[in-house]
Amino acid sequence: MKKQTSVWSWLPSLYFAEGIPYVIVMNLSVIMYKRLGLSNTDIAFYTGWLYLSWVIKPLWSPFVDLLKTKRWWIVSMQLLIGSGLAGVAFTLPAPFYLQVSLVLFWLMAFGSATHDIAADGFYMLALDEREQSFFVGIRNTFYRLATIFGQGALVVAAGYLERTTGNIPYAWSLTLLVAAGLFVAFSVYHRFVLPTVSDDRRDRRKSYSDTWQEFGRVVVAFFDKKNIGIAIVFMLIYRLSEAMLVKLASPFMLDARSKGGLGLSTEAVGVVYGTVGIIALIVGGILGGIAISRWGLRRCLMPMALALTLPNLVYVYMALWQPTSLVLINGAVAAEQFGYGFGFTAYMMYLIRFSEGEYKTSHYAICSGFMALGMMLPGMAAGWIQTTLGSYLSFFIFVVVCILPTIAIVPLVRSKMD
Fold this sequence. Notes:
The protein is an all-alpha fold. It contains 18 helices and no strands. The two termini are 41 Å apart.
């Protein structure tokens, strides 16, 4: 049984809290390090490593069930994330900020990945099937609002402080302290508001050896799936071009025009990617879902793959002409993000379909690990590739060429669909 607590009192804040740390670790950190003077090679390589927590998340997900309760994990991870943000904030003015901040960001990534496991599990325990269906759209909405907050509002705030104080490390320290305070507040709030669910407890009948044996069966069953080889290749390369683009899109916007960039302020980048881009992404995702429900995944897979990859051409255009109009820049980014949202829907639906079977929840977690790996490896190399090629224009042309492996794998995947 569960304590009678209104779902509206905890679910929106829970999924708002779930979305923020991922955006901070994977997107906001890129902008912050760029403003602090790091090279594109270092930014892409170091922040690419932060994906590792999401890559290996399936390895420790069984122990979130075994140890403590999901409620405990939620509250504890929110406190860990808040502490990590505060640590980064106090570290930035120091000469050794890079090493310490990267360690703290990795701890935050671990906390965020663990929070994802616990929050999604708690959602299924605290709500019955009817409530889960009703609130699935609500939770996704607040997750997207968190993306706007983390990639938009926080970046705009940091840019405003950069401009008014003239001190970049201080501006980002203050911004991250605000975020840290927010997560401490989340932890305290959810400590008292999250309902107590009788099923949310450690199953003391399970031993560690039983858990590992069960995990082994899950892994063996996953790799025994039909067409597993093609499926893994598809998971790794469907987002190949996007994985590289996303690491250098913000640095391209921030870099001076003399260096081939657009010379935008931090505030402007926060608006472009945190509001206009995210809204276009959401609209694209909604329309992608409608398209698949109407025509089916098999028919939609190739058009959606093209929608995800071809809009990357707008970056070739921007690198070539270096437009100064914010309206034009926002329009270009909106087009690319809309295509990404539309095309990514097919990818997520494929993962869901491929995970069907006895261990569908665990198999989906493994698929999400391959998805993260497909973002991690190309992203880590993106900065080095751009530096080696010598210009943003050459890099974006290379990104467009990387569309070809994605397009090549789609017919093979479609031919294996039932």
